[in-house]
Design a protein that fits this description.
The protein is α/β, with parallel strands linked by helices. About 40% of the residues lie in helices and about 25% in strands.
Length: about 350
């Protein structure tokens, strides 16, 4: 035990305290959907009494009581701001959270464990909106998300096209020559395969890029690094050993913003989905409709449908639902294909 090691332990504990404090604020913010007023005196008294009663050892009841009074006051202040809550899959620092902030910088970004959790929370009104990735220039479509999109009642109200730049992150003071293992999401590891092989690193799959960064900041793992975003390095106080380590120069991910109600403004792009037992025939008939109306399609993708041998086909096209050509094309496509459904017309932002 040395002064340096004790200080390193304190730094890791501080990071965990801040992460837990942030998580508590998120839960407090979500409670506004379940109560009539921001202030609940009985609940506040209950929390403070429990805190004082369970204070132990070096943390006295007076200190903990005052600390939690400040925390409760800050929670109430957050609830009063009327922040929009937006769910995303992963840990704080994920690329999906970067997309949330690019769409609405003041929104409260709430992490979810699975994509299904994002959809479910928005559908049930626990979140105001959700952000999910739909396609990547290197990895193609995000299958699990598109499979849910085929049947959800949610509407696409915006799209964010975001550049993805992977960084090699390590704990402060780490000698890059001692790094032997790198943690990250399997997709990120695959996108940085040549860098990993060139530096003779052992890839270790993790459930999330930002989750790997958080783990690295909380645990003292000798010779370990993580692949994640610059944003994650800032959140978890990690050093960037090298930036832009992905194998391809162009690496972008496109995200949809989902909500219960459609976009109220004038959009410039639309998304739709329809079913097809005969993929080629269904595609031809729909493509012909849009071609005759002079509408440019920007995306055509498919995922297996629930019925064997059938597909859910996604198309994106330029234009707005208010334009006569788009209205005619949607009406014709609805009549000539199975379960044609407009997911939304919206504005797309490319960063």
């Amino acid at each position: 035990m040395t002064l340096e090691s004790l200080r390193a332990d304190i730094d890791r504990i501080d990071a965990r305290i801040l992460a837990l404090l942030g998580e508590r604020m998120e839960k407090a913010l979500l409670t506004k959907n379940f109560k009539a007023s921001v202030t609940d005196g009985n609940r506040e008294a209950e929390v403070l009494e429990r805190v004082r009663r369970t204070s132990r050892c070096l943390v006295g009841p007076d200190f903990s009581g005052e600390l939690f009074r400040r925390i409760i006051a800050e929670s109430k202040a957050l609830q009063s701001k009327g922040l929009r809550t937006v769910g995303f899959q992963g840990e704080h620092g994920a690329y999906s959270e970067m997309a949330v902030r690019a769409w609405e910088a003041t929104a409260a970004a709430i992490p979810c464990q699975e994509f299904e959790d994002v959809f479910d929370a928005v559908e049930k009104g626990r979140f105001d909106a959700g952000v999910v990735p739909v396609e990547n220039t290197l990895g193609g479509i995000v299958g699990p998300v598109n499979s849910i999109l085929a049947y959800t009642n949610l509407r696409v109200i915006a799209a964010i096209d975001l550049p993805v730049s992977h960084c090699l992150l390590a704990a402060p003071g780490t000698d890059h020559r001692e790094i032997r293992t790198v943690y990250s999401h399997p997709q990120a590891l695959a996108q940085c395969r040549r860098f990993i092989e060139r530096n003779k690193l052992e890839p270790e799959p993790w459930y999330d890029t930002a989750g790997a960064a958080r783990m690295l900041s909380e645990e003292n793992i000798p010779g370990a690094a993580a692949i994640a975003s610059r944003f994650a390095s800032e959140l978890y106080d990690l050093e960037i050993i090298k930036e832009g380590i992905q194998d391809a120069e162009i690496n972008r991910t496109r995200f949809f913003v989902l909500a219960r109600e459609p976009f109220a403004g004038h959009g410039d792009k639309c998304s739709a989905v329809f079913g097809a037992a005969n993929k080629a025939g269904a595609l031809f008939s729909v493509l012909e409709i849009f071609a005759k109306e002079g509408i440019n399609l920007t995306r055509i993708e498919s995922v297996p449908d629930r019925e064997p041998g059938s597909f859910a086909i996604f198309i994106d096209f330029e234009g707005s639902a208010e334009e006569p050509a788009v209205t005619r094309a949607v009406e014709a496509a609805t009549a000539s294909s199975r379960d044609f459904r407009l997911l939304g017309c919206y504005r797309e932002t490319r960063l």
